[in-house]
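New to this. Help decode the following:
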Amino acid sequence: MKLHLEDGSMWEGQSFGAPIAKGRQVHGEVVFNTGMVGYPEALTDPSYAGQILVTTYPLVGNYGVPDPKTLESEKIQISGLVISEYCEEYSHAGAVQSLSEWLRAAGVPAISGVDTRALTKRLREHGVMLGQLSEGRPAKKFIDPNERNLVADVSPRKKKVYGSGTVKIIALDCGMKENIVRSLVRKNVTLVRVPWDYDFTKEKYDALFISNGPGDPTQCAATIEHIRYAIKKNKPILGICLGNQLLALAAGAKTYKLKYGHRSQNQPAIEAGTDRCYITSQNHGFAVDEKSLPPGWEPWFHNANDGSNEGIRHKTKPWRSVQFHPEACPGPTDTAWIFDDFLRSLKAV
């Protein structure tokens, strides 16, 4: 199998997972993740929709795959996987199948034997690139997944209700990870999980949550309009990852595409106005242009590596969001307190 990049470079290796038919190509945006573990959770994160994932950790597959029902969504979300070395003989008490078997059943191709260190250096120097996985020549046109609404691809079609508490939270599912649901559902909470374009403006609710998700946030025009209505009604709001970008856009700010994004479980985020640094799990390719934040809004966190925005909040209103993942899975739980603070403000805990 071969990985072709839009700059004309080609990386050859051995195929595993789902095969690709002769004359066919699998397209995606080629990105890298620097996490050492957590590949089952990462592969099921809807934020990876439309992307060919490169893992920088050299050995993948050694602990197999657990029961998929325990992971972050109902299926593998990536378009393809690129690794250095695949471990066929997995060993873990909770494993139910190998990585290759799981990928094959999901129809997702993978390639091993690639110099992922050199590939990652290329992506860091030139930025993320469009790519194709194939058994032969690449197609002439490289397809950019960010030109379509990826959120519409991963968001559910129907709403789902969790719990029966007195505090009702509308959760906009733009590709929400399951551990976010686990983090929000408490004894006094009713969580109403709705599609990305669901019109909740005429419903009674106590707070709004905006989830993570894939792609360019400006594609979600309906979501942004509904968030603006929640702001107008002064409803408490918490956003995560894509939710940070959508809240910023609803407030009147702008977003931009990062050179190679942040995808790992070791991203340092510094709380604005303090020296406190949290290690966070992240997966995004776009960011908020905090210089465009309107009056009344301020940065909440910054990335310690490149200074990019990692969260925003309003100075007087109950609106805030973070660019990282407090729910982890995979990754550290340094910032799980953000859920507690949000729920405490609603008197839900």
The chain has a mean pLDDT of 97.
